[in-house]
Amino acid sequence: MSAITVASLSLLLMLVLIWAGMHVAVVLGIVSFVGVWLIRGDVSVAANLLATASQDAIASHIFGVVPLFVLTGFLVAIADVGKDAFEVANQLLRRLRGGLGIATVASNAVFAAITGISIASAAVFTRVAVPEMLRFGYNPRFAVGVVAGSSVLGMLIPPSLLMILYGFLANQSVGDLFTAGIVPGLVLALAYAVGIVLMATLWPRSVYVNGEGARAVDAELLPVGTLVMKLLPSVVLIVAVLGGLYAGFFTATEAGAVGAAIALVIVLARRKLNLRSLWSVLTETGHVTVSVSFLIICATIYTRMLAMSGMPQFMVEHMTQMGLGPTGFLIIYVALVIALGMIIDSSSILLIVLPLMLPIAEQFGMNLIWFGVVTVVAVEIGLLTPPFGLSVYVIKSTLQDSRISLGDIFRGTLPFTLMMFAVLLLLIFVPQISLVLLKAPGG
């Protein structure tokens, strides 16, 4: 059996095992070990590869960015920063057509700029925003759809765990990836806001239950000073972390440390942290960090197995012979990523496709920072599409409302999926949107 055949069969077996429910990191490790064993015909070579990858994959201090930003996200969630951001946006935008939907997008963007976890955004705003929109007469499908759609901002607006994972897999600067994600994230949020206004104006029944507008519900308006105090922690965190990172005052790892320190001060100042919640935050941070570490270790083994098989070089030569240029390759790549997003989770997609596709992207001379932004947006579309749609399942389990079915949530997300696809096309054909904030966009 040739090395190319072994690598091809390993890919098929990997998809089958992941779909069957086996953890992606375990699948990567097992398939890579067996693949190296078959390619070299020596089990000791495969065992040595496992040992070497385990030692090398996460040895760099740069990896400290993962637990620090995860810790920041858990702390601000306890401090109700997301809830406060929604209350401020709600009061400012309530009078607009679709105002509560726009408020949800705006507060999700703020929350994303602090946490970087889409699933956390989906869970928080399902509890905070959906009941408020239902109370004001918004269509239930729209209410859950806008939460699901805007939750993906958590993986695009930095800090982003998905971008951190891409940075390790592609050997690219996490700080540059964070910087490159700012403008695309804001463009996507703006597209959602404009789309909501258009839906509320041209197709009101898709937004409101009565098709006319939001119900007037008596609510106490908060004074300006209270609004400022509610928004202040978010502003301080964003300016300190992203501002310091962009200005070059500190690295991505140091930015994570600054964010965690400020988040700890905020949660202590609000008296939201006790010994029990502190222990919960630390253990959850440990669980996420270990999970990501294991993924990166096994992805490293998988990448080395593919390199040993010659599969990346084979695919580069094959695509060159087919006459596919950069645009043709990118169309196939994006279609593959979106299709995989319908059946497996975001991290699994990156771990499976990047070791194969990055050499081809490099061969075509593509900027790997821009390629990373395009990849993240394409992958995140999968969070909204059936049958997998992880954000949709999180919203359903968090909502616990039998009147809103899983199908209702998927139908509610459709307009936002289409908007996200339009933004993806814009990012593909106008790369400068992703590179404009970088000091050396051609590098």
From TrEMBL:
Annotated source species: Ottowia flava
Q: What subcellular locations does the record give?
A: Cell inner membrane
- State the protein's name: TRAP transporter large permease protein
**Self-association or partners: how does it assemble?**
The complex comprises the extracytoplasmic solute receptor protein and the two transmembrane proteins.
Give the source lineage, highest ranks first: Bacteria, Pseudomonadati, Pseudomonadota, Betaproteobacteria, Burkholderiales
Annotated TRAP C4-dicarboxylate transport system permease DctM subunit domain residues: 12-433
A Pfam cross-reference name: DctM
Its biological purpose:
Part of the tripartite ATP-independent periplasmic (TRAP) transport system.
- List the membrane topology term(s): Multi-pass membrane protein
